[in-house]
Every structure is written in structure tokens, then in C-alpha cells.
# Entry
Amino acid sequence: MLELSDEERMNRAVRSLRNMIRDKKELNRLLAGKYESTDEELRQALVQALMDWNMTPPLISMSTLANHPNKFLLLMGAAIQTLTSAGVWHSREHLPASDGGTSADDHAKAGEYSGWIERYVAEYERKKGDLKAALNITAALDNMSIMSEYANSFYTLYGELW
# Structure
């Protein structure tokens, strides 16, 4: 089994998150081919998603990037953090301009971000609650549940093994 350093694991998680939210230079034509979110912002979103997971009842064992029970759910939580941050920024920078009958507003995206955030939050919270309850029941039964191939926490996600 491949042993990754914490830094490499985080770098791979950042790349997976960037792929999930489709923040790619070649797709960001309006941003002149730049990323919308920096690697540092995506790392912060991943840490916030871990903090959210670890502090949401039932409080079970602390999870890290290495041992989180569902990497997709972790990315979903990080995507919510990333979209929320971007939506706040677009809301704050929203200043429509017009001149000579032409108008422009490159920050009129807050509504779209809000819609995605609502959709993601509803799905994420439901899945997070269901998984945490199942893990809590399994722990209460002293891990006597039936083993599953879906229980592997070390797998490839969005082209990255982390």
C-alpha cells in the first residue's frame, strides 16, 4: 500500500477538489485563464470540511485526510466551503456599471453560487448524518457489522489516490 506524506495527501486532495468544482485554467476564460480559487484557499476549505465532520455529533473518532471514512463526502464539504467563500466574494464585489448604454457586472454570480450551495448543503448534511449514525452504530456493536468492499477509505477519487 502506498504511504503518502501529509503534504502530498493534501496536494492530491486539492487537485481532486479543483477537479470536482471544475476550477481549471482552460475552463476559466472570463478569469483570463487563471484559477478562481488558490491552492491555499482549497487547502483551507478541506481543513474546514474536516473540522465540520469532526465536530458534528455523534462525535466519533477524529478523522484526517488519511482516514476519513468517505473521501467524496469530504470533498463535497470542501466544495461547500469553497463555493460559499467565492459567493461571499462575488456578493461583496457586486457593483454593476454602465456607460453609454452598455452595462457590465462581472460579479453578478452570487445567485448562482447560492443555488449550488443550497443544493450541496442539503445533500451533504443528509449523507453526513446518515454515515455518522451508521459509523456510531457499528462502533456500538463493537464492529460486528458485515464487511463491505465500500468500506475501503484509501481509493482513487477524481484521478488522485489519497
User: Anything to note?
Assistant: Helices lie at 6-20, 39-55, 71-93, 110-140.
